[in-house]
């Protein structure tokens, strides 16, 4: 594996751990508070109070202050102030007795945890800005962490038993190691964050990409996930700390599952990217559904009153898996957002990282505030005697603990469904930027990306789900796939038999590369025309259907078909409208220039022996007009269009592909049209005869056996 690839693999893990390290530190402070004062919420509240103060300080001081808008600084200050007030409210129920040495010792442990994190960030910032030697940086960085661990150990061993103190020291060291790993691996990101950028260029960038749908959708999704993360883990681990004694075990399980899930998610994404089948949004949805199910399971665990049951640990594992998958995919999407910013704002990306950091920190503050609000309300409802009994705790506070987290995850789910970019368009965006960097232009691809990236757009999740559901029922054996030679600079045009509705369904579900089908305008544009077309060419010929049901069924199919064709990005074919037919060729050439493969069903439904309709078996006469696409495409691009014949055999359940035939501009136009059409006609008929012979042989075998 190359150095570059290894770096690309470790960065998401680093960011994943950096995001979760605050949660683990919060968990640890609750563990220490529970062991020292039997008040776990107090330790967690003190830690969040310190975190809010640190974030507020970073926002209100240079260099970040100049890159935060007035509204953003105001909201951050308001949220941080509310968090401080909520912490003050908690102290009403957990009054700090200044004469109690354990209170000061707990405060010392929390401050050491905060100091360790702040020192690490400060040293990285100094090393990046001032060019500190690597050895000196590592000595200071490791030394600061070791001093904090030793300081925490001195405090813990002074007031706790040897076993408990040793466990808590191990937890402190584990949290330190996790955050150190994330910080050290993310030093390159810090270098970008600290590069000098003029505030004016930052705000210009903010204004330009703030109107881009793909970016705003991603920002909303990212914010929802960060809010959901804070609420979920804070409330879940608060419950476990109050009702159980194995919080360290829970933390170790969470860390282990985080690492494993991240590596698994990253491996799957990379593997599917190589196969050009990756879609980060789908994996994001899988992670969110795992997350949601873990919350449901956690709620059931609380109702059962068995926080240490296998079901409780299973819910924790699922939650860690779901969260880790979501964060891993989020980091993958972040790379695409940089490309989105370049597409909409050119190379003037000064302040982009600062802008994303501001949004992330604000979302984190919102999540912590909501979680702290829930804890405060919980404490107000319970009074000074917070229940330590799981059934009582669950009976009082189960909705409070679960519902906010569920609502946040539902918000993230809605954000994922709203995200407009599939992997196909992510790849197209990268290809366009590469072409632009090389000094080349592709207006058709740019126009297509404008519609998908900048303007409102939705991924066809429902139609993709429907295809996934139908594919097992229409599974075909693919033959001749070696003939499918992809080239993004010169896409393919697939020609397939119609077989009434069978051919289009089999081809759309089973062709192994992305395609955009040609579809007759009657079933693409107008639902009434669609109903009449389906009735004439398909429904009317179904003798098993009662006559009075045929037209109502056709009218019911009409709107669904128009919607489905839109989701498939089909190109309407205006068969009997010569003027409008030019739009078909114009749209097709633009699609080819943008790198889209086309799928055409060239059979003439009016040429069959029995009257109107398509051949149910075999191959009917072909229209020849589709071949005009080749010279138009050649005149526009100078490239020779490639046609590949395919045949879907219903009885054998096979989809066969024959060798490609390429347009030759040197031939006389009519002769070239005849050559291409004759080859396609003969080849598709041969494929049918071959598969039909196999079927007849199969029938004879089973008959005689």
Give a quick precis of the structure:
This protein has about 700 residues and is mainly alpha-helical. Helices cover about 70% and strands about 5% of the residues.
Question: What does this 3D model show about the protein?
Answer:
- There is one protein chain.
- The chain is mainly alpha-helical and 705 residues long.
- It has helices at residues 3-37, 40-60, 70-93, 101-130, 134-159, 162-185, 187-193, 199-209, 213-243, 247-274, 280-304, 310-345, 352-382, 390-418, 423-437, 443-454, 461-470, 502-510, 527-537, 547-567, 578-593, 629-637, 669-704, and strands at 477-479, 492-496, 515-520, 571-573, 597-600, 642-649, 654-657, 661-662.
- It is elongated and about 100 Å long.
- Strands 1, 2, 3, 4, 5, 6, 7 and 8 form an eight-stranded mixed β-sheet that branches.
Question: What attributes does this structure have?
Answer:
705 residues, Growth Hormone, Chain: A, single chain, mainly alpha, elongated, 23 helices, 3 domains, 8-stranded mixed sheet, 8 strands
Silhouette = elongated
| End-to-end distance | 55 Å
CATH superfamily label of the largest domain: MFS general substrate transporter like domains
Strand residue content: under 5%
Tell me the number of helical segments per DSSP (H or I, 4 or more residues long): 23
At the fold tier of CATH, the topology name of the largest domain is Growth Hormone, Chain: A
In the CATH hierarchy, what is the class of the largest domain?
Mainly Alpha
| CATH architectural name of the largest domain | Up-down Bundle
* Number of spatially distinct domains: 3
Radius of gyration: 31 Å
Tell me which oligomeric state these chains represent: single chain
Low-confidence stretches: 1-18
Which whole number gives the mean pLDDT? 79
């Amino acid at each position: 594996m190359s150095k570059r690839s290894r770096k690309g693999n470790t960065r998401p893990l680093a960011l994943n751990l950096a995001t979760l390290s605050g949660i683990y530190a919060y968990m640890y402070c609750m563990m220490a508070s529970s062991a020292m004062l039997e008040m776990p919420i107090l330790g967690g509240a003190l830690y969040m109070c310190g975190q809010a103060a640190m974030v507020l300080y970073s926002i209100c001081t240079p260099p970040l202050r100049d890159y935060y808008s007035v509204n953003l600084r105001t909201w951050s200050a308001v949220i941080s102030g509310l968090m401080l007030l909520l912490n003050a409210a908690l102290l009403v129920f957990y009054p700090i007795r200044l004469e109690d040495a354990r209170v000061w010792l707990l405060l010392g442990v929390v401050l050491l945890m905060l100091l360790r994190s702040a020192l690490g960030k400060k040293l990285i910032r100094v090393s990046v800005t001032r060019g500190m030697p690597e050895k000196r940086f590592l000595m200071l960085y490791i030394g600061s962490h070791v001093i904090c661990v030793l300081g925490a150990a001195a405090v813990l061993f002074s007031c706790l038993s040897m076993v408990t103190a040793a466990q808590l020291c191990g937890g402190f060291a584990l949290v330190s190691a996790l955050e150190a790993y994330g910080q050290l691996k993310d030093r390159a990101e810090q270098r970008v964050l600290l590069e000098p950028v003029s505030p004016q260029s930052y705000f210009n960038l903010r204004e330009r990409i703030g109107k881009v749908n793909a970016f705003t959708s991603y920002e909303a999704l990212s914010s929802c996930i960060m809010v959901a993360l804070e609420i979920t883990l804070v409330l879940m681990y608060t419950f476990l700390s109050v009702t159980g004694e194995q919080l360290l075990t829970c933390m170790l399980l969470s860390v282990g599952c985080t690492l494993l899930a991240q590596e698994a998610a990253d491996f799957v994404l990379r593997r599917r990217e190589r196969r050009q089948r990756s879609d980060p949004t789908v994996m994001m949805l899988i992670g969110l559904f795992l997350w949601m199910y873990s919350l449901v399971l956690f709620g059931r665990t609380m109702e059962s009153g068995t926080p240490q049951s296998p079901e409780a640990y299973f819910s924790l594992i699922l939650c860690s898996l779901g969260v880790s998958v979501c964060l891993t995919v989020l980091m993958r999407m972040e790379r695409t957002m940089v490309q989105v910013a370049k597409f909409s704002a050119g190379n003037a990306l000064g302040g982009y990282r600062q802008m994303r950091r501001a949004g992330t920190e604000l979302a984190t503050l919102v999540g912590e505030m909501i979680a702290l609000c829930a804890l405060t309300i919980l404490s107000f409802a319970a009074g000074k005697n917070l229940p330590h009994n799981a059934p009582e705790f669950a009976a009082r506070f189960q909705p409070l603990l679960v519902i906010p987290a569920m609502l946040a995850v539902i918000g993230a789910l809605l954000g994922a469904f709203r995200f407009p970019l599939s992997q196909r368009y992510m790849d197209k965006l990268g290809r366009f930027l590469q072409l632009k960097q090389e000094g080349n232009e592709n207006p058709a691809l740019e126009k297509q990306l404008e519609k998908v990236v900048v303007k409102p757009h939705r991924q066809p999740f429902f139609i993709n789900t429907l295809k996934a559901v139908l594919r097992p029922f229409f599974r075909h054996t693919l033959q001749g796939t070696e003939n499918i030679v992809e080239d993004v600079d010169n896409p393919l045009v697939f020609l397939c038999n119609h077989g009434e509705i069978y051919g289009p369904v089999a081809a759309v579900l089973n062709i192994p590369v992305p395609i955009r089908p040609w579809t007759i305008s009657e079933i693409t544009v107008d639902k009434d025309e669609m109903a009449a077309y389906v009735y004439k060419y398909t429904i009317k010929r179904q003798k098993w259907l009662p006559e009075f049901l045929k037209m109502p069924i056709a009218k019911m199919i009409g709107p669904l078909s128009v919607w489905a064709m839109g989701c498939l990005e089909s190109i309407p074919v205006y068969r009997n409208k010569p003027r409008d037919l030019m739009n078909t060729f114009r749209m097709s050439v633009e699609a080819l220039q943008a790198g889209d493969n086309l799928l055409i069903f060239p059979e003439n439904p009016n040429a069959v022996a029995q009257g109107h309709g398509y051949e149910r078996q075999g191959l009917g006469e072909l229209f020849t007009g589709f071949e005009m696409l080749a010279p138009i495409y050649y005149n526009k691009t100078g490239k020779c269009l490639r046609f590949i014949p395919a045949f879907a055999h219903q009885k054998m359940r096979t989809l066969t592909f024959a060798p490609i035939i390429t347009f030759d501009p040197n031939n006389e136009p009519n002769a070239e049209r005849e050559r291409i059409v004759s080859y396609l006609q003969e080849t598709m008929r041969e494929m049918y005869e071959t598969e039909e012979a196999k079927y007849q042989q199969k029938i004879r075998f089973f008959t005689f056996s």
